[in-house]
Design goal:
It holds the Pfam family Peripla_BP_3. With 313 residues, this protein is of the alpha/beta class. The chain contains 13 helices and 12 strands. Helix 9 links the parallel strand 6 and strand 7.
Length: 313
């Protein structure tokens, strides 16, 4: 594997101080021509590319971080992204935000684009079925959100535990005909993992599965609720968007069933009785992701995985 040289490595090879290497990189006129040529020759010979984000944090230029979201219309991703942007702006870091639309190839294209623009620090929302191989081709700083990777720093959710907790809450309240509105399995976490948790609970508690999988938007939730079989005495939604679509159907049919969902929404809480919501830790995730990335930018390359806990209301 190609070695990722640091300023410290270049300084050692040149037998000069790190500050001298930095001054050469920043075109400081106070550096002698002889020293500049010697340092530049080593830089060219090893193919050293300075960490743009780290240099920017030291005031050499404007810091930039690339962010790859899955879907802009995702309520959960929007909450996490808002927390990320708040913290980046506080650090005077400029974000470049792009959308993958759950397409692994699109993620690879975006990473290549960032590389071409010399952006070496990225945050990737990993709801799509991303391969670790694609992500490991990235040579800079990286934090992945929502997915666990053994060899990549990540902040991830307890998708299966959250669905299980909501099902357990409904079950203990006496409901046995629990319908589930979920997301297509192309979404690895919000989709496949949450659906599998619902099916596992049904199997363990001898319940008949009753579910429909759809896209991540309000209208899809509204339309697919009708695909759930009767009888129904409660509904569980994988996301806030699906829950809002379900409530729209409730209102039109004048049948307001107990509803549980992952997320929190003040309008739903105000208008829907018997509502069970779950704080999934979206804001906390955004803050942790930025903190991990800043550690990498400042030189701490230790791989860290952090699981964000949820809070059942």
């Amino acid at each position: 594997m190609e070695k990722n040289y640091t300023i410290k490595d270049i300084a050692k090879l040149c037998q000069v101080g790190k500050s001298t290497v930095s001054r050469v990189l920043n075109h400081d006129p106070k550096v002698s021509e002889e020293t500049r040529k010697k340092v530049q020759a080593v830089i060219d010979s090893v193919g050293f590319k300075p960490n743009r984000s780290a240099r920017a944090m030291r005031g050499a230029q404007n810091p930039v971080v690339g962010i790859i979201v899955s879907k802009f219309n995702s309520s959960g991703e929007s909450q996490t992204l808002r927390a990320i942007l708040t913290e980046l702006y506080r650090q005077k870091i400029t974000p470049i935000i792009v959308e993958s639309q759950f397409d692994e190839k699109q993620v690879a294209r975006h990473l290549n684009l960032f590389k071409q623009r010399q952006v070496d620090s990225v945050i990737v929302f990993g709801f799509s079925p991303l391969s670790e191989e694609i992500l490991q081709q990235w040579q800079g700083n990286m934090v992945v959100i929502a997915r666990y990777f053994k060899d990549i720093s990540c902040v991830y959710y307890d998708d299966q535990g959250a669905i299980n907790a909501l099902m357990e809450k409904l079950y203990t309240q006496g409901y046995r005909h629990i319908g589930y509105l979920g997301i297509h399995n192309q979404d690895e976490t919000t989709g496949r993992l949450r659906t599998q948790s619902y099916l596992n609970f049904c199997l363990q508690h001898h319940l008949v599965p009753n579910f429909a999988l759809t896209e991540l938007d309000i209208e899809a939730g509204y339309q697919h609720y009708a695909k759930l079989a009767q009888p129904l005495d409660a509904v569980l939604c994988a996301t806030t968007s699906l829950a809002i679509g379900t409530v729209k159907h409730f209102q039109e049919s004048q049948q307001m069933l107990p509803l549980a969902y992952i997320g929190q929404n003040s309008l739903l809480e105000h208008f829907v009785p018997n509502l069970i919501s779950l704080d999934f830790g979206y804001e906390q995730t955004g803050n942790r992701a930025v903190a991990l990335l800043l550690e990498q930018i400042h030189g701490n390359k230790t791989i860290q995985q952090q699981l964000v806990s949820f809070l059942l209301s």
